[in-house]
Structure formats: C-alpha cells, structure tokens
Amino acid sequence: MRLTVVGCGDAFGSGGRGNACFLVESGTVTLALDFGATALVGLRRLGLDPNRLDAVVLSHLHGDHFGGLPFLRSLASSPFLRERLCSIPCDSRSKRSTTSAWAGSFFSSPVWSLS
To answer: What is the CA 106 to chain-centroid distance, rounded?
Structure first.
C-alpha cells in the first residue's frame, strides 16, 4: 500500500499545502480520501493522473474536503479527459447534502456519479 499526501492544509490552503486529499494505492485500486478544491491541481503538480482514481471517499462534508469534486466531475463529462469510472460511495443523507451544495450550479447530473 502506498499513501501520497496531495494536500493537507486548512480550508484556506495556508502555507501552500492545499486542501485535504490523500491518494491511497493498493494493488490495482487507487482511491482518494477527500478531494478538496485544490486536489486536481495537486495531483497534476505531483505528476499523478486523475484518471487512475477508482473512487473518492469523503471523510465529511466540509468544502475543503469535497470542493474539488466539481472539477473531477468536469473531467468525467468529457470522454477525452476521463477514461475510467470513478465512484463516490455515500449514504442518502450525504448525497442530499452534496446535491444541495451545488444546487443551481452548471452540473446537471449528480456529482457522486462520475461515469
């Protein structure tokens, strides 16, 4: 198993550490624990391909832990940018909360379905 710290800063990215995102690789599975707003930039800065993600697991619904999902979702909506299915397991309460957080956004499909 390999753990890569992509971001570990506070909500404001103090010290340039970025928002929460930890990449866990084990065998053939790659997942991100949290996906803060700076996660996609952090992955690219480290030379890591976001297409490798099989899943994103959220620790809780604070913006600095899930704010990067719209950017990951934008990759998912383009067949030229997103090559693999990525899931975000969550309960129905989390699904409702996440949907409410992006109500009125330019994403027409649910953010937890990144197929």
So the answer is: 17
Question: What domains are defined for the chain?
Answer: 2-114 (3.60.15.10)
DSSP string for 96-109:
HHHHHHTTTSS--S
29-33: strand order across its sheet: 2-7, 21-26, 29-33, 55-57, 86-87, 113-114
Most confident range (mean pLDDT) of 22-36, 57-71, 77-91 is 22-36
Give the rounded percent of residues in the chain with a pLDDT score beyond 70.
Answer: 65
| Residue linked to tokens 């198993």 | 1
Distances (CA, A) of 85 to 8, 69, 79: 26, 14, 11
- Calpha distance 9→2 (Å, rounded): 20
- pTM (2 d.p.): 0.73
Instruction: Give the chain's end-to-end CA distance (angstroms, integer).
Output: 26
- Model pLDDT for residues 7-34, shown as the tens digit of each residue: 998 888 778 889 999 999 999 889 999 9
